[in-house]
Amino acid sequence: MVKKEEKLKLSNEEIKLLERIKKSRTEKAVRxxxxxxxxxxxxxxxxxxxxKKYKTNRPKIQRTIHKVKSYGVRVALDDLPRSGKxxxxxxxxxxxxxxxxxxxxxxxxxxxxxxxxNYLAKYVRKKGKEAGWDCFxxxxxxxxxxxxxxxxxxxxxxxxxxxxxxxxxxxxxxQVLCVYKEVELLRKDKEKGLVVVCYDxxxxxxxxxxxxxxxxxxxxxxxxxxxxxxxxxxxxxxxLGAIDLLTxxxxxxxxxxHRSEEFIEFLKHLDTxxxxxxxxxxxxxxxxxxxSKKTRDYLRDRTxxxxxxxxxxxxxxxxxxEVFFSKMARTLLRWIRVSSKDELKERILKYVEExxxxxxxxxxxxxxxxx
Length: 371
What we know:
With 371 residues, the protein is of the alpha/beta class. The chain has three domains: 12-76; 91-150, no CATH class; 169-370, 2-Layer Sandwich (Nucleotidyltransferase, domain 5), CATH 3.30.420.10. It contains 14 helices and five strands. It has helices at 12-23, 29-42, 47-53, 58-71, 73-76, 91-101, 117-130, 141-150, 169-186, 260-273, 288-291, 293-300, 321-333, 341-357, and strands at 194-210, 231-244, 250-255, 279-284, 306-310. Strands 3-2-1-4-5 form a five-stranded mixed sheet, sandwiched between helices. A hairpin with a 5-residue loop joins strand 2 (231-244) and strand 3. The longest helix is centred in the middle third of the chain and has 18 residues, at 169-186.
């Protein structure tokens, strides 16, 4: 080790480097520490004094100074390369484990649907030895978790994806986007002979009531409304709604169900709102009520009044009415409590009435320039 009386000889360039690292906020902590040790030793402080100043041990300071003397400042700031211990688990053994983890337990004759770390470790300990991998004889769940994490494999999780089941998805999507493009052109036309609405149902809106009264906001109790966790159900309602893409107005009816009868009732509602000579284009999904015999019979007597443009299966995100539904869920329905279904209907109607006083025109942007 370096004797106490030995002095370091640093160039101006090395001193500037150490000062920069010492003040850095982006360097590794270990490099900053070592830069401080070297500068303090160069400034005349003793090994003991440096260790006491930074609340560490003297051998740590001595090792840093020794590396400076032996290899120079730049090398001393980092760890010296080491040969390292030969890994106990070979690359081939690790690949065998990853292969097991990428299979469902049921594919291996086990009852589980997905792996847990405990269950996977237990299986690897048992089957690894049979496969000739003795290194797995005492493997624990922690080691298994580390090996999986290195390869970004998470066999204990399930994520959902949406498979395209509509072979005409692209074609139907283009049809919907063409309607939105047409709307952009219609906005410039003062004499519009066409109405375009996006329609959908929002079923199962719950009428939930409090058992106990909400408590008012109290800064001493968290500053939020306090609500009892118990509640009572009054039933559900279905909202049938459409948004006019030219005016931004929202049209809804509230019913207990959303069958063909209710859908036809909504079409009649639209029929009364708009002039008879105007065609009404409706963007909607493939719900059975929209294509039922009752609906077709109703439309047959009104040829030229309605035109349906269907979104592809699993393409509800193409329907702009979903923007309104999302907004309503966040701003009205999220925390709502009512005493009856009638009160829920009344508040939803009032909410829509307020929105229609200052209507917002929703516009579709995605891929519209490609049409």
